[in-house]
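Hey, quick one: can you model this chain's 3D structure?
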Amino acid sequence: MTKTEPNMEKIYEENLKFWDDAWNRVSKPHKELPKIPYIHELTRKLKKFRVKKVLDLGCGSGWLSVFMSKYGFDITGIDTSKPAIELANTWAKEDNANITFVTGDLLNLPFEDKSFDAVVCNSVLEHFRFDQAKNIFDKVHKILTDGGFLFGCFDQVGSGKGEYFELDDQTHVYTDQMRKGMMLRNYSDQELKGLLSNFDILSFDKNNYGSRLVWAKKK
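Sure thing. Here's the predicted structure for all 219 residues.
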């Protein structure tokens, strides 16, 4: 029997629908910031590197964008989910934060080359296939200014609860009711370093939860 090839376009569309549905269930922004020590190190280093314009890649409801804006950075946040961006705009308005939030496909970032001094990618890559991650990082490289910076938090994820099938690159696609459509992939240290081949990696550390905290500079 011939193996049926998965419809990658449909799988990705269902992944996007999962996030829209998840954020649609949130009626107002949850404005308590997570207790994550590295976010203070993040703003300190952005100041040290004299960064001004920052893209929050996969910003969700905007908590990190709002946090960084309080330190005087010019922030743009982008997410694929329109309901998430609506929450982010509500939060920014309530906090008088001057942030530009954009609904857009992370696989086709709608920004000009050399638009940002830094890009922050916080626990986002895990929801993309390997080929998609390469596409994203290639585009990130283009939209960064010469010598621009990338900060990434890349989580060590397992299978998680629920039922799923696995793509050829070990991406899990969930089929149970709670996570239907969501993609989840664990990236090895070697894979992450390969994806950053167009960057000089300044640091590559692990926190107590096994997440990789990476600083890189555009070559």
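One thing worth noting: The helical segments are 8-24, 38-48, 63-69, 82-94, 130-143, 189-195.
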